[in-house]
Amino acid sequence: MNELVVIAHNLRSTHNVGSLLRTAEGLGVRTVYLTGYTPYPLSTSDGRIPHQAGKIDKQIKKTALGAETSQSWQQGDINAVIEDLHDQGFVIAGLEQTPEAINLNEYQPAAKLAIILGREVEGIEKSVLNLTDLQLVIPMFGKKESFNVVQAAAMALYHCRFT
Description:
This protein is of the alpha/beta class. It has helices spanning 14-26, 50-64, 67-70, 78-87, 126-129, 149-162; strands spanning 3-9, 31-35, 73-76, 91-95, 102-103, 112-117, 134-137.
């Protein structure tokens, strides 16, 4: 079975973070890295202002339903996380619509795969895309151009877990 990690970079929504932690936990993701301005649950070494951290934690818990404690997660710097994962032998894939992107249906997952998720509306920044080994795209059949970030993550993780 392949080893999966997720990097959630610059997500705005606490509800998306909670849902992502729950989805990742259900699909056996090793670790979810929360980078950039992505909100994160309370931690023992939390340096945020207590009332703000508590409010964010409460909002994440609303959709995580306990996954914020059962799913391994870390908060960190995107560049350091990618460098460390590369050193561990992970292929870094951006889940993004680019001209070079591989259709998810046609992708044979690497044994060690890190999937980067980007901002809810704008997607993954070019500077971060430049750090990826490849990009993956989910084909769309309707009129909309993209899925919610957590829905897209669920599809990609499911494919990579069971292909």
